[in-house]
C-alpha cells in the first residue's frame, strides 16, 4: 500500500509595503477555495522612515544656546530699566504730591490766620463801636438829666431828636418791629437814671420845673419811680417846696402814699405849708384813676414789645 502524501500547502501572499497588516477576510467559494476580498481601491504608500508616536514618549530637552542667554540678558536689562523708570515716576509723583500738600497746608494756614485776623478786627471794631455808642449814650443821659434839672425843654427836645435820627441812620423802620425798637430807645432816654437811680423826671421835680415835668410825663415818664433813698419825684418836689411841680405830678398820677426809706411820705416831709395842704387835701381816687391810665400805657408798650419779638421770631 503506497504511503499517504500530505496535501500541498496554499502559498500565503506577502503584503506589499503600506498594505494593512490585518489579514483580509476570506469567503468560501463554491469550489471550497478562499479568495481575498478586493476593495477596488489602490493603497497609498507609507514611508518606511515614519515611526509611530507613543503616548509615554518624553519631549526632547531643549538645549540652552548663546542666543537664549543673550535674550535673557536683554529682557533682564529691559525689565530693570522699566522698573527703575516706574520707581522714578512714583518717587516724582510722591514728591509732587508732598509739595502740593505742603503748599495747600501753608495756604490753608495763611487763610485761617487771615480769617482769624479779620474776625478779630471785626470783633474789635464792633467792641469799639459799642463802647463809642455807650459813651455817646452816657453823654446824652447826662445832658438829659442836667437839662431836666435846669428845666431846659429845648435841650431835651434836641436830645430826643438825636435818638430818633440815630435810629434813622441805623435803618430802623416804622413797621411793628421798628416802632417797638424806636419806642424802647426813646424811653431809655426819657426814663434815664443817674448813678443814684434818680430819673430825669425826679431831677425836674427837684429843680421845681413844672413845664419840664409835663414834657416828660406827656412822653411816658413814670411819675412813681423810686431813686436814691427810695424817694419819688413827688417826695423830692415836696421836700424842696415846689408847689407847681407838686401839682403837676399829682395831676399826672404821682402817688402821695409811697414811703421813702426814712418811712416818710411826701406829705410828711413837705417844707411849705401850701404844699403840705395840697397833699393832705388831694383826692386819692383821682390818683387811682390816673394810675389805671398809666398802667394801660405800660401794657400798650409791653404789647408792642411782644409783637416785635413775635415778628422777629417769625422771620
TrEMBL record:
Residues 1-79, 117-139, 292-315 are annotated as: Disordered. It holds the Pfam family Ank_2. The keyword Cytoplasm does not apply. The keyword Repeat applies. InterPro entries: Ankyrin_rpt, Ankyrin_rpt-contain_sf. Keywords: ANK repeat, Repeat. Gene3D superfamilies: Ankyrin repeat-containing domain. ANK repeats lie at residues 196-228, 229-261. Residues 54-72 have a biased composition (Basic and acidic residues). Residues 35-48 have a biased composition (Polar residues). PANTHER family: ANK_REP_REGION DOMAIN-CONTAINING PROTEIN, ANKYRIN REPEAT, PH AND SEC7 DOMAIN CONTAINING PROTEIN SECG-RELATED. This is FAM83H antisense RNA 1 (Head to head). The lineage of its organism: Eukaryota, Metazoa, Spiralia, Lophotrochozoa, Mollusca.
Amino acid at each position: 500500500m503506497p504511503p499517504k502524501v500530505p496535501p500541498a500547502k496554499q502559498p500565503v501572499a506577502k503584503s506589499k509595503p503600506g498594505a494593512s497588516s490585518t489579514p483580509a477576510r476570506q469567503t468560501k467559494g463554491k469550489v471550497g477555495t478562499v479568495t481575498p476580498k478586493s476593495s477596488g481601491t489602490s493603497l497609498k504608500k507609507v514611508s518606511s522612515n515614519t515611526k509611530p508616536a507613543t503616548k509615554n514618549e518624553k519631549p526632547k530637552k531643549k538645549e540652552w544656546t548663546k542666543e537664549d542667554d543673550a535674550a535673557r540678558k536683554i529682557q533682564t536689562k529691559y525689565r530693570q530699566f522699566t522698573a527703575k523708570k516706574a520707581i522714578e515716576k512714583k518717587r516724582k509723583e510722591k514728591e509732587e504730591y508732598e509739595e502740593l500738600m505742603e503748599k495747600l497746608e501753608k495756604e490753608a494756614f495763611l487763610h485761617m490766620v487771615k480769617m482769624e485776623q479779620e474776625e478779630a478786627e471785626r470783633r474789635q471794631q464792633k467792641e469799639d463801636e459799642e463802647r463809642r455808642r455807650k459813651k455817646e449814650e452816657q453823654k446824652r443821659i447826662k445832658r438829659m438829666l442836667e437839662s431836666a434839672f435846669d428845666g431846659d425843654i429845648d435841650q431835651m427836645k434836641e436830645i430826643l431828636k438825636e435818638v430818633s435820627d440815630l435810629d434813622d441812620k441805623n435803618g430802623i423802620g416804622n413797621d411793628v418791629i421798628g416802632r417797638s425798637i424806636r419806642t424802647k430807645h426813646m424811653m431809655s432816654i426819657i426814663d434815664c437814671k443817674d448813678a443814684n437811680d434818680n430819673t430825669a423826671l425826679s431831677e425836674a421835680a427837684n429843680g421845681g420845673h413844672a413845664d419840664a415835668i409835663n414834657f416828660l410825663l406827656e412822653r411816658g415818664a413814670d411819675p412813681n419811680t423810686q431813686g436814691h433813698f427810695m424817694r419819688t419825684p413827688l417826695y423830692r418836689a415836696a421836700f424842696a417846696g415846689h408847689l407847681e411841680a407838686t401839682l403837676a405830678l399829682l395831676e399826672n398820677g404821682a402817688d402821695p402814699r409811697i414811703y421813702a426809706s426814712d418811712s416818710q411820705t411826701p406829705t410828711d416831709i413837705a417844707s411849705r405849708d401850701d404844699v403840705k395842704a395840697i397833699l393832705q387835701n388831694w383826692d386819692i381816687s383821682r390818683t387811682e384813676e390816673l394810675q389805671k391810665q398809666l398802667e394801660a400805657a405800660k401794657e400798650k408798650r409791653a404789647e408792642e414789645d411782644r409783637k416785635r419779638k413775635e415778628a422777629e421770631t417769625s422771620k
